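Incident review: delayed structure delivery

Summary: a single-chain prediction request sat in the queue longer than the usual turnaround. Root cause was a stuck worker, restarted by the on-call engineer. No data loss occurred. The affected request and its eventual output are reproduced below so the record is complete for anyone auditing the incident later.

Affected input:
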Amino acid sequence: MSGITYLRGDATVPSVKGVKIVAHVCNDIGRWGRGFVLALSRRWPEPEAAYRAWHRDRAAGDFGLGAVQLVQVERYVWVANMIGQRGVRTGSKGVPVRYEAIDTALDRLAGHARELGASVHLPRIGCGLAGGTWSRVEPLVEERLVRRGIPVTVYDPD
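Output delivered after worker restart:
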């Protein structure tokens, strides 16, 4: 049985008390404009601005597959931009999702969540435009977050 709580609703509006991290998967080429990021941008401008600056300055930083950027958007709410997909299109190398990068990013996210005493809230990361399957992502979420005592809620849109 999963230790993940599943709800119908909007992952950008977590309805629990305490510090919350809204986590999602981004691509590694600096594109922001389709999928869950649109909901993020409607709610807060900071995650997109931070992601674009992070990509622009990538030569001097840690931008790349498996990296995590934490952006505070409200007093008790952070957004985790996690680089978990190569490009944005399915091609000769398959779908954009990179499960190993998501695994690394979730491991890093766990450290941030524990440091902040935060719960984690997310859509089914890597399973929309990135082309992944939840049956491959869910065990990573379980292993990296739930087994470390971090409360996780996954939101499915209404």
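Verification: Residues 89 and 96 are 6 Å apart (CA to CA).
Action items: add queue-age alerting; document worker restart procedure.
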